[in-house]
Amino acid sequence: MNFDLHHVRLFSPCPRGLERALAEELAALGAKEIAPLEGGVAYGGDRAVCYRVNLSSRIASRVLWQIAEVAYRDEQDVYEAAYDVPWHAWFALQCKIRVNVAATRCPLKSLDYVTLRIKDAICDRFRAEQGERPDVDTRAPDVRIHAFLDARRLTLYLDTSGEPLFKRGLRTVTGEAPVRENLAAGILRLIGWTPDVPLLDPMCGSGTFLLEAAQIALNVPAGLRRSFAFEKLAFHDRGAWQRVRREAESRIRRTLPAPIHGADVDAAAVRAAAANLRSAGLSAAVRLTQADVLELAPPQPPGLLVTNPPYAMRLGERDALAAFYPRLGDALKARFAGWTAYLLTADLRLPQLIRLTPSRRIPLFNGALECRLFEFRIVKGKMRKK
Ligand SMILES: C[S@@+](CC[C@H](N)C(=O)[O-])C[C@H]1O[C@@H](n2cnc3c(N)ncnc32)[C@H](O)[C@@H]1O
């Protein structure tokens, strides 16, 4: 089969709320015809764009390569559309497969049955072409096939990423309730942080914001330490991939324009963040301390504070937090004048509890958990909520 590697339709899902931030990032990576949708961005490109987005996007969760799009009415149409794809030209019989189905407004009764029919069609087509069928492995597949159904159309994709891209192949120790890597990176872009601005996460946990910020500041590609599913697909060209990697690696910087600071009250969290930075080779980029945010002396000069404070749905008690938040508001007012603070939380009571007036509230999702990113411009005097 002749792959058209120059005109490829791609789709990248991302955390909801970050579609526009991802669209900007994709444009910088060479994508064309970029269309932000709910929960992801559709775009066009070529094989090199697919490689670059996998390697360097900090916000995309995956890069899906569109291989078919057809109208359907029933399960038989879905089966036939899937059978029509020359799967044997896309990947080898030895690859273990997994089929994922997602849908909005789909009239079919059971998505499990749709998944089964697509899997049957792939196996039947392989049997017809090569006399054997590939095995299914839902836990550690070599090739993931994604199907998306809306009311009338079925789109089939090959997943070129494999493990989701927010798994950077970096973090070794996770703390409690970590924020997803691509959400942290997306937030840093949303708030307009640039590496020349001092950054502080005073409740850093396992250090996700710090790791993402250090990689952004040093221009380290997000996927430098991991492998990708496209390495097992038939269109893969190792030479072309090495060129994309070398080009991205040549832009890695050695020094930071401004310091990145992290702190946590919990010694185990500080150890976890330190271990994660060390294993990523980023220890020198971040100044870590063990401290209570209520007593922390802010670094100078002021910059952006971004953090994901504990919240009751997942950590601690609601009452304890109801006592902590007003004190956090007081500490920010007393010592952080000149800073802009961004607090990501699933606890929508936060502005009331902290008793400060947010200048922005941005809806976001950490996995399935609905959150808000609250912006507080910290000035001395007059920002206190009655
Ligand atoms: C939701 S977790 C942060 C998770 C982090 N964003 C990550 O990705 O791993 C909240 C963190 O706040 C820390 N913390 C709670 N109270 C604190 C305080 N008074 N001062 C500093 N850190 C505190 C906890 O130890 C915990 O690590």
From TrEMBL:
Residues 49-160 form the THUMP domain. Keywords: Methyltransferase, RNA-binding, Transferase. This is Class I SAM-dependent RNA methyltransferase. It comes from the Bacteria. Pfam families: RlmL_1st, THUMP, UPF0020. GO terms for molecular function: RNA binding; rRNA (guanine-N2-)-methyltransferase activity; rRNA (guanine-N7-)-methyltransferase activity. The lineage of its organism: Bacteria, Pseudomonadati, Pseudomonadota, Hydrogenophilia, Hydrogenophilia incertae sedis.
